[in-house]
C-alpha cells in the first residue's frame, strides 16, 4: 500500500523565515515529506520565501477580499486562500477554511454552498475554528456549527484546527457510520513552545476504510450529541459509571421501542451486592453511607494535597434519588460525610470544596461528587457556572434549559420546601468556602422527561479549575490504573483518618 507522508505546521507571518528553516530541518530528519501544509494568518505574496529542498508546500492563508482562490507561487509552493478543496497529483484531497468565527457567520451561505459541491469525503481538512461538540468536549467556548457541517460532510481522516494558537490538542480517533476513521487536532503556532508541527502517514489507496480500529476509539462527537436513539454510544455524556446507565434509560424511554433499562443492585456499580464492585477504591464505610475515590478523577494533586481529592459519597442502599422527607437519617448522614470532607480539605489542605449531585427519579444509584477547589478559585465559581449555563442553554438546544437558584444554607426554608417535594428533579452545586460558614447552594430543576447534560457538573468544575482535558472521567487523561487507584485511596484514607465519621457513628 502506498503511503503519503504529510507534515502540518502552523506558522505566523512574523516567524515565517525562521519557521521555514525549522521545517527544513524536520524534513531532513523525519522526512522527506510528500506534502507540507502550513496554515498561516496572512501571507504577503511578495515575500521571498526560500523553499529550496522542500517538497510540495501548501500555504493556506486568509484574505477577506479574495474569496476562494489558489495560486502557484513557485515550482513547489501553492498558495490557497480562504476556503476550497485541493487535489494533489497523488490523489490526496485537502479541504480548507481559514475564516474565523465572525467571518464564517457572515459568509455562511457562500461557504456551505462551496462545500456542498463536493461529493466525496476528503483526506485532510484544515479549518481555523473547531467544531462545536469537540470544542464543548474540552470546555472551550468557541467552535462553529459551520465547521460541524463540514466535518460531517467531508469526514476527513485528519481534521486540523488552529484557532488555539497556544495549545496542542489531540482528540482520540472516532468513526463514522461508513467505517471511516477521523482524527482531530489543534496545532498551536510556531513560538508557542508547544508542538507546532505534526507529521503523519496516510495510506493513499484505501480511502481510510481499511484502517484497523485503534484501541482508543471514542464515540463520534458529531453524531453523539445528547439527542438521538439507541445508536448513541454509551460513553458520551457520562459523568460517572452510574450516569452511563442513567443515560441509557433516558434514551431508552425516548426510543420507539420504549425499553427502559433497569439496573439491578447485583449489576449496579455502587451496590455492595455487585460482585464487581471496585472495592479497592473505598475510603470509608459508615452505617448508611460509604465513601470512595472517583474513577478518572477530575481534580489533580495541588499544593499540599498529594491526592486528587475527588471522591464520592454514596448511600449503601440502592436508591435513585434522595427523599429527605422520608429518609431524614440518610440525608443527615450524607451531610455529615460532606462536612467531614469539607473540614479535611480546609484544615489539612487549605482548600475549599464543591459538591455536585443530580437528583433524578431516573438515576440508578444516587451519589454526590466532592471536589476540592483552591481558595483563590472559589469566588469564580458563579461566573464559571454562568458561562456553562449559557453554553448549555444557547448551544445545546436539545438539553433541558437550566436556570439556577441560589440558597444561603441547607436550612433555608425555601430550599427545604423545594427538595422535600418528591416530584422535583434537580442538579445541585454546594459551594463551601469554609467549614464554618453556610454553604451557597445553586440548584436548577428539570423535568424527568427532559434530556440533561450529565456531564454538566464536571464540565463547570473542569472549566473553573482550568482542566479542559479532564471533562471526561473515562478519557485516557483521567483514567488511572488499578494500582494508581489503590495508592490514591490509601493516601486519601490516611489524610481522612482524623476526620472520618464512620468511626464515631453509632
Ligand atoms: Zn446500586
Polypeptide structure, described:
- It is built from 12 helices and 20 strands.
- It is elongated.
- 26% of the residues lie in helices and 23% in strands.
- The longest helix has 22 residues, at 328-349.
- The chain has helices at residues 16-30, 101-106, 108-116, 132-137, 145-154, 241-254, 328-349, 375-378, 381-395, 413-419, 456-464, 482-496, and strands spanning 3-9, 35-39, 56-61, 69-74, 77-81, 83-87, 93-97, 124-127, 158-161, 169-175, 181-186, 197-203, 282-285, 289-293, 311-315, 351-359, 368-374, 405-407, 425-432, 440-446.
- The N and C termini lie far apart (70 Å).
- A hairpin with a 5-residue loop joins strand 10 and strand 11.
- It folds into 2 domains: 3-203, Metallo-dependent phosphatases (Purple Acid Phosphatase, chain A, domain 2); 280-496, no CATH class.
- Helix 3 packs parallel to helix 5 and helix 9 (381-395) crosses helix 11.
- It has 506 residues and is an alpha/beta fold.
- Strands 13-14-15-17-16-19-20-18 form an 8-stranded antiparallel beta sheet. Strands 4-5-3-2-1-12 form a 6-stranded mixed beta sheet, with no helix packed on it. Strands 6-7-8-9-11-10 form a 6-stranded mixed beta sheet, covered by helices on one side.
Amino acid at each position: 500500500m502506498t503511503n503519503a507522508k504529510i507534515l502540518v505546521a502552523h506558522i505566523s507571518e512574523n516567524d515565517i523565515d525562521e519557521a521555514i528553516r525549522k521545517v527544513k530541518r524536520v524534513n531532513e530528519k523525519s522526512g522527506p515529506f510528500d506534502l507540507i501544509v502550513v496554515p498561516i494568518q496572512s501571507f504577503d505574496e511578495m515575500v521571498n520565501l526560500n523553499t529550496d529542498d522542500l517538497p510540495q508546500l501548501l500555504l493556506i492563508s486568509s484574505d477577506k477580499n479574495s474569496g476562494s482562490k489558489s495560486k502557484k507561487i513557485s515550482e513547489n509552493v501553492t498558495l490557497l486562500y480562504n476556503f476550497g478543496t485541493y487535489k494533489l497529483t497523488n490523489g490526496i484531497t485537502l479541504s480548507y477554511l481559514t475564516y474565523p468565527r465572525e467571518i464564517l457567520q457572515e459568509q455562511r451561505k457562500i461557504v456551505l454552498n462551496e462545500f456542498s459541491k463536493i461529493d466525496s469525503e476528503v483526506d485532510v481538512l484544515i479549518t481555523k475554528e473547531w467544531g462545536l461538540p469537540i470544542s464543548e468536549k474540552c470546555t472551550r467556548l468557541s467552535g462553529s456549527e459551520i465547521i460541524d457541517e463540514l466535518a460531517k460532510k467531508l469526514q476527513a481522516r485528519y481534521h486540523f484546527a488552529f484557532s488555539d494558537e497556544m495549545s496542542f490538542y489531540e482528540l482520540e480517533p472516532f468513526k463514522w457510520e461508513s467505517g471511516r476513521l477521523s482524527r482531530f487536532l489543534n496545532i498551536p503556532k510556531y513560538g508557542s513552545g508547544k508542538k507546532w508541527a505534526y507529521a503523519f502517514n496516510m495510506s493513499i489507496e484505501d480511502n481510510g476504510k481499511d484502517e484497523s480500529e485503534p484501541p482508543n476509539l471514542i464515540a463520534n462527537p458529531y453524531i453523539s450529541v445528547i439527542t438521538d436513539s439507541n445508536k448513541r454510544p454509551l460513553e458520551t455524556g457520562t459523568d460517572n459509571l452510574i450516569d452511563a446507565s442513567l443515560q441509557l434509560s433516558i434514551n431508552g424511554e425516548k426510543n420507539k421501542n420504549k425499553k427502559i433499562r433497569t439496573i439491578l443492585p447485583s449489576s449496579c456499580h455502587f451496590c455492595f451486592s455487585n460482585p464487581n464492585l471496585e472495592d479497592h477504591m473505598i475510603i470509608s464505610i459508615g452505617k448508611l453511607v460509604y465513601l470512595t475515590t472517583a474513577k478518572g478523577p477530575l481534580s489533580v494533586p495541588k499544593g499540599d494535597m498529594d491526592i486528587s481529592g475527588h471522591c464520592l459519597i454514596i448511600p449503601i442502599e440502592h436508591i435513585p434519588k434522595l427523599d429527605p422527607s422520608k429518609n431524614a437519617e440518610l440525608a443527615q448522614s450524607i451531610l455529615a460525610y460532606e462536612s467531614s470532607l469539607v473540614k479535611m480539605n480546609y484544615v489539612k489542605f487549605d482548600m475549599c470544596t464543591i459538591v455536585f449531585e443530580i437528583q433524578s427519579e431516573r438515576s440508578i444509584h444516587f451519589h454526590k461528587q466532592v471536589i476540592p477547589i483552591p481558595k483563590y478559585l472559589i469566588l469564580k465559581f458563579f461566573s464559571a457556572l454562568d458561562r456553562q449555563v449559557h453554553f448549555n442553554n444557547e448551544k445545546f438546544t436539545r438539553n433541558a434549559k437550566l436556570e439556577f437558584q441560589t440558597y444561603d444554607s441547607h436550612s433555608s426554608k425555601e430550599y427545604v420546601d423545594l427538595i422535600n417535594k418528591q416530584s422535583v428533579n434537580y442538579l445541585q452545586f454546594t459551594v463551601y468556602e469554609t467549614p464554618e460558614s453556610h454553604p451557597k447552594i445553586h440548584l436548577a430543576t428539570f423535568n424527568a422527561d427532559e434530556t440533561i447534560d450529565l456531564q454538566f457538573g464536571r464540565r463547570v468544575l473542569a472549566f473553573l479549575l482550568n482542566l479542559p482535558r479532564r471533562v471526561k472521567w473515562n478519557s485516557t487523561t483521567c483514567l488511572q490504573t488499578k494500582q494508581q487507584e489503590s495508592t490514591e485511596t490509601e493516601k486519601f484514607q490516611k489524610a481522612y483518618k482524623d476526620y472520618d465519621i464512620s468511626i464515631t457513628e453509632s
